[in-house]
Amino acid sequence: MSVFKGESVASGVALGRVFLEGFEAEESYPRRIAKDQVEDELNGLREAIETSREQIDALKTKHGENLRDKELRIFDVHLQYLQDPMFIDEIEKLVLDERYSVRAAIRKVVDDYDRIFQLVEDKYLRARAGDFRDVATRLLRNLGSSNSEDGPDRPEGGYILAARKLTVNDLFKLDHERVEGIVAEEGGISSHAGILARSIGIPTITGIRDLPTKVQNEDFVVIDGAAGELHVDPDERLRAEFERAASQLPGGVPASAPTKERPHETRDGTNISLLASCGSASEVELSRSFGMDGIGLYRTELMFLVEKRTPSEDMLTHHYTEVASGQPKGQLVCFRLLDLTASTPGFGVSRHNKERNPALGQRGIRALLHEGKTLRLQLRAILRATANCEGAAILVPFVTGISELQRVKAAIVEERLELQKRKVPCAETVKVAPIIEVPAAAFMLHAFLNESSFVVVAVDDLQGLLLAADRDNSRVREYYSTQHPAFFELIARMAREAKSHNKDLVLFGEGAADASRLPFYLGVGIRSFSVAPVSFESVLDLCRKVTLDECRKIADRLLEAPRALDVQRLLLRYAK
């Protein structure tokens, strides 16, 4: 017997025979095609897209009674990606212009997206790369012979899936078989596949490398999801213990009521604004279907990273119009200006000397002001795209002083006048707000409130800079994760400042949706949150379980705690 330790994604116990998926030698296919093959290739792509849509619709129907509304909407994300013009157009362009085969084009586009998402300092965007891979894998399997079932037969009945990456496709296949448990080399707990695995009760662990050297097809294994352990060929005694444990675990997940029809408020009726943080037009559409209160932050980096050269003003205007045009009248639509470092490949200032620490160098508004053409290009495109949008706003990233905000406002006035001279329709007014992530800006919040319509606080970046700890650096992760009293004091201070100026303070980032902290945020007076659409339902559920009086008491006690350990203990106690 062997035991291998991984990361727990979904708890529970699963036993069965192994089936290895995706470790075969890569299918041979032509990289380039002749001119007379282009039309057949594109027709094949369209058929694969249509087949993929039908499969996803069938999965939604089949699992509609077993999954909650939030999990079912993950399928909607995949449907949106299948019709995302940026994704599909890139594939078609490679086929038309460079004579790539469709399979080669899909693989190249997905590889490019993977590379791009890794460059962005945003965990949420990185996680979304998994959705693109899922959609691409489904397309590839639906392209003619790639959908064949060649290779070893799966075990009869239920089995344990061993895969390279945790994907939505492998959770459901096509879907006539039941996957009892999953072990994967890669895949995160916050990915859509991870969310679905937990929702449908499939014990899942990831992070076990070189699986083909540890298990073979037909090996009998046990997955202990809670412990994150894979037991290969356990003895009879241990096997019996796990069988007994598996039989005692409850199954099934009750479905919840549709969130779109539930008011966004606390248990005692206090209104809460739940805005969406998005990185693509597809996610914007998803947030609308959820009934969220607007777009609290739209990341504009993707167009610049995907294109091999700086996108044109017309391209940006078209893309931003997609985001703004479908929003209900008066709802907030906030475009964050580019938040890239000077060393990011493809960004206009990357020709300058590489910086030793780009995260604390010429990034965000610093880089945009240094390389003014890109800033002006974005401002013109946003002004044009929001000509008929009442709730348009521009967010300025990585500010340290109000002079940066003032320079952006002056540039907006100049670009609007230039557009009006050319008789180009554009927004008459647009709100401007800083993104507070640098502690110096947080301590000078009153000055920003005098200059802006509202403020957005990037919780995760502010915490990292305040504690001098990179959240992506495993060596200092314990420092970043510390529930430091200074962080809570700073949030409370900013909430008081915003209230005294009668202006909204919007919390943004993973930390804004942290269930353990949410009562504190509400208790100190914060009422607006910008969260990922997939986090919307859980945040709303928690808000509806608490009263404002309860939250104020929690906040008061947390602010009195002298040590990080005391804060941690209080958060754990209130979480129960």
- Estimated radius of gyration: 25 Å
Strand content of the residues, in percent? 5-15%
Flag low-confidence runs: 145-150, 250-259
Strand order of the largest sheet: 1-8-7-3-4-5-6-2
Structural class: alpha/beta
Cα shape? globular
Write down the overall mean pLDDT.
Answer: 84
Seen as an oligomer or otherwise, the chain set is single chain
CATH class of the domain at 2-23 and 154-248: Alpha Beta
CATH topology (level 3) name of the domain at 2-23 and 154-248: Glucose Oxidase, domain 1
Largest sheet data:
8 strands, mixed
User: Could you state the CATH homologous superfamily of the domain at 2-23 and 154-248?
Assistant: Phosphohistidine domain
Task: Compute the separation of the termini in Å.
Answer: 38 Å
What's a quick, concise take on this entry?
The chain has 576 residues and is of the alpha/beta class. It has 23 helices and 16 strands. Strands 1-8-7-3-4-5-6-2 form an eight-stranded mixed beta sheet. It has an eight-stranded parallel β-barrel with strand order 9-10-11-12-13-14-15-16, surrounded by seven helices.
Secondary structure layout:
Elements: E1 2-5, E2 7-10, E3 13-21, H1 38-62, H2 69-82, H3 85-98, H4 102-119, H5 123-141, E4 159-165, H6 168-172, E5 179-186, H7 192-199, E6 204-206, E7 220-224, E8 229-232, H8 236-248, E9 273-278, H9 281-290, E10 294-299, H10 301-306, H11 313-325, E11 332-336, H12 365-370, H13 372-385, E12 392-396, H14 402-421, E13 431-436, H15 439-443, H16 445-451, E14 455-458, H17 459-466, H18 477-481, H19 485-500, E15 505-508, H20 518-523, E16 528-531, H21 536-543, H22 548-560, H23 564-575
Parallel strand pairs: 3-4, 4-5, 5-6, 9-10, 9-16, 10-11, 11-12, 12-13, 13-14, 14-15, 15-16
Antiparallel strand pairs: 1-8, 2-6, 3-7, 7-8
